[in-house]
C-alpha cells in the first residue's frame, strides 16, 4: 500500500510539472503583450508662472489638484518596446524632449523612436523651459524657478520611463472608440477676419479613442484615452494649477476603476475649444463627460490588439516665411508689446547668426500596434484638418491621430487655415518665437511624410 501511494505521489508531481510546462508553452504560443505602468506627481512645489495665457500677470496660487506624468510601457513577444509618456503640461519644448530622450537612452537603453512624449496642453500648468518664449516677460527670479522646475521634471520623466519598463508583465490590450460632445470649432468669422470664438458649423473631431490594458487575469490595469480639444475650459483669470478637463477625466476614471491608471493623449484639436467654458464647474463637468464616454467604451466588447509592435520616427523640413530685417525693425514701433518683444528677439538672432533659418525640422512618429491600430503622433498644435484628411487617405484599418507630441513649438495650420488667416495661421507664431508663418506646402509635406512612414512601418 505504501509503495502504491508513493507511485501516485510521484505521478502527481510529474503531471503538475508537465502542466506547468504546457502552460508556459501555451502562453508563449499566444504571443502576448507585456505592459508596465508608472506615474509621478509633477506639481510645482512653489509658486511658478503659468503657461498658455499671455494676460496673466503673477505666479500660480496653489492647486485645484495635482499634476501628473504617467507612462505606459509596451513590449511585444519579439522584445520590441514602446513607452508612451503623458503629462499635464502645456507641451514639450524640443530641448526638454531631447534631454529626456537622451537620459532614457543612456539609462534604460530605449531608442528615441520608441519613446512617445505627449502633453495634455493644459493652460493651468507651469511654464517649462524654452516653451512659448515670447509670451512671458519673467524677472531673473522667476526664470530661475522655471529653470529649476524644468531640470527636476526632466529627471522625473527619465525615472518614470525606467519604472514603467521595470514593471512590465503579461497583458492583454484592446481598443475601442466613443464620443464626447463638448468640443467646438473656435475659428469664428467676423468683419475683421477670423477670431477665436464659437463656430458650431466648423470642423471638429469628437471621437474618443480608448486603449484598454488588462493583466493576465483580465483585470483592468490602465486606460489610455484621447480627445481633440484644447484644455482651455479654465481661462486666463485662473491662477490655480490643474489639468483642466483632462485632469478631471483622469481623476474620475481612477476613482471609478480603483487600482487602474488613466492616461490622456491630446488629439489634433488646435482649433477646438471646450464649450461652454470659463468656470471650474465646467472643467469638472467636461472631465466627467469624457470619463463617461470612456467608461461606455470599456463596458463594450473591444477589439483585441495583436501582440506586435513597429515604430518609426522621422523628420521633414517645413517651410517658414521669414520677414525681412526691415519688417522686424518696423515692428519695434508696434503697439502690441508681444510683436515688439518678438521683433527684438528676431533682430538679435539676425545679428548673432546673420540669417534666420527658413525651415523647421518637424518630427513625426508612427507606431503600429498589431495589424489594425496605427498611432500617428504629430508635433506642434495640430489643427483638425490633418486628422480628418489622414483618416480618409491613410491606408490603415484604425487610425489614432495624436497632436502635441515630442515638440510643441508652433501651431500646425492646414492650407485652408493659412488662407483664412487668424490666430492659428498667423499671430500664434509670435508667442512661440517662430520667425514667421508656415508656407502653404506645409500640409502636403506632412501628409506625404506620414503616408510614406506608415507604408514603411507596415512593410517592416
Model description:
Helix content is 36%, strand content 26%. Helix 2 runs parallel beside helix 3 (140-166), helix 4 (244-256) packs across helix 5 and helix 6 (325-331) packs antiparallel against helix 7. By secondary structure, it is of the alpha+beta class. It has a domain at 33-309 and 365-404.
Share of helix among residues? Answer: 25-40%
**What string gives the helices and strands in order?**
HEEEHEHEEEEEHEEHEEHHEEEHEEHHH
| CA-based gyration radius | 24 Å
Proportion of strand residues: 25-35%
Structural class: alpha+beta
What's the overall geometry?
Answer: globular
| DSSP E strands, number | 18
Poorly predicted ranges: 13-29
Distance between the termini: 63 Å
* Separate helix tally: 11
Describe the sheet with the most strands: 9 strands, mixed
Can you tag this structure with a few keywords?
11 helices, 460 residues, 36% helix, four-stranded mixed sheet, nine-stranded mixed sheet
Give a summary of the structure in a few sentences:
The protein has 460 residues and is of the alpha+beta class. It contains eleven helices and 18 strands.
SSE diagram, text form:
Elements: H1 2-29, E1 33-41, E2 68-75, E3 81-87, H2 94-108, E4 115-117, H3 140-166, E5 169-179, E6 183-190, E7 193-199, E8 207-215, E9 220-227, H4 244-256, E10 261-266, E11 272-274, H5 280-298, E12 303-304, E13 309-319, H6 325-331, H7 337-353, E14 359-369, E15 373-378, E16 381-382, H8 384-393, E17 398-402, E18 411-412, H9 415-420, H10 428-432, H11 442-459
Parallel strand pairs: 3-4, 9-10, 15-17, 16-18
Antiparallel strand pairs: 1-2, 1-5, 2-3, 5-8, 5-12, 6-7, 6-11, 8-9, 13-14, 14-15
Amino acid at each position: 500500500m505504501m509503495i502504491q501511494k508513493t507511485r501516485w505521489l510521484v505521478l502527481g508531481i510529474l503531471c503538475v510539472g508537465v502542466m506547468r510546462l504546457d502552460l508556459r508553452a501555451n502562453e508563449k504560443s499566444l504571443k502576448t503583450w507585456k505592459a508596465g505602468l508608472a506615474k509621478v506627481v509633477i506639481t510645482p512645489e512653489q509658486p511658478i508662472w503659468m503657461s498658455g495665457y499671455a494676460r496673466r500677470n503673477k505666479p500660480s496660487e496653489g492647486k485645484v489638484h495635482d499634476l501628473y506624468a504617467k507612462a505606459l510601457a509596451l513590449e511585444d513577444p519579439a522584445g520590441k518596446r514602446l513607452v508612451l509618456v503623458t503629462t499635464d503640461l502645456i507641451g514639450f519644448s524640443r530641448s526638454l524632449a531631447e534631454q529626456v530622450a537622451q537620459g532614457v537612452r543612456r539609462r534604460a537603453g530605449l531608442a528615441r523612436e520608441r519613446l512617445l512624449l505627449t502633453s495634455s496642453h493644459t493652460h493651468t500648468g507651469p511654464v517649462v523651459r524654452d516653451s512659448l518664449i515670447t509670451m512671458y516677460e519673467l524677472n531673473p527670479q522667476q526664470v530661475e524657478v522655471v529653470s529649476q522646475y524644468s531640470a527636476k521634471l526632466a529627471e522625473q520623466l527619465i525615472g518614470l520611463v525606467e519604472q514603467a519598463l521595470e514593471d512590465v508583465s503579461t497583458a492583454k490590450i484592446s481598443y475601442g472608440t466613443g464620443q464626447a460632445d463638448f468640443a467646438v470649432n473656435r475659428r469664428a468669422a467676423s468683419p475683421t477676419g477670423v477670431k477665436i470664438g464659437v463656430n458650431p458649423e466648423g470642423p471638429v473631431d469628437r471621437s474618443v479613442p480608448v486603449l484598454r490594458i488588462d493583466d493576465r487575469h483580465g483585470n483592468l490595469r490602465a486606460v489610455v484615452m484621447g480627445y481633440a480639444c484644447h484644455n482651455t475650459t479654465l481661462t486666463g483669470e485662473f491662477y490655480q494649477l490643474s489639468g483642466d478637463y483632462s485632469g478631471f477625466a483622469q481623476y474620475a476614471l481612477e476613482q471609478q476603476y480603483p487600482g487602474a491608471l488613466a492616461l490622456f493623449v491630446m488629439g489634433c484639436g488646435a482649433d477646438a475649444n471646450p464649450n461652454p467654458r470659463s468656470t471650474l464647474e465646467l472643467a469638472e463637468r467636461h472631465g466627467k463627460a469624457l470619463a463617461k464616454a470612456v467608461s461606455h467604451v470599456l463596458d463594450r466588447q473591444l477589439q483585441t490588439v495583436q501582440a506586435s509592435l513597429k515604430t518609426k520616427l522621422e523628420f521633414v523640413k517645413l517651410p517658414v516665411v521669414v520677414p525681412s530685417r526691415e519688417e522686424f525693425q518696423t515692428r519695434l514701433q508696434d503697439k502690441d508689446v508681444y510683436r515688439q518683444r518678438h521683433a527684438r528677439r528676431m533682430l538679435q538672432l539676425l545679428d548673432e547668426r546673420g540669417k534666420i533659418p527658413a525651415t523647421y525640422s518637424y518630427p513625426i512618429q508612427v507606431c503600429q500596434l498589431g495589424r489594425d491600430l496605427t498611432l500617428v503622433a504629430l508635433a506642434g498644435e495640430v489643427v483638425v484638418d490633418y486628422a480628418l484628411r489622414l483618416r480618409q487617405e491613410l491606408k490603415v484599418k484604425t487610425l489614432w491621430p495624436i497632436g502635441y507630441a515630442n515638440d510643441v513649438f508652433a501651431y500646425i495650420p492646414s492650407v485652408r487655415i493659412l488662407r483664412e488667416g487668424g490666430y492659428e495661421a498667423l499671430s500664434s507664431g509670435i508667442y512661440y518665437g517662430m520667425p514667421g508663418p508656415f508656407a502653404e506646402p506645409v500640409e502636403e509635406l506632412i501628409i506625404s511624410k506620414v503616408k510614406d512612414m506608415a507604408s514603411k512601418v507596415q512593410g517592416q
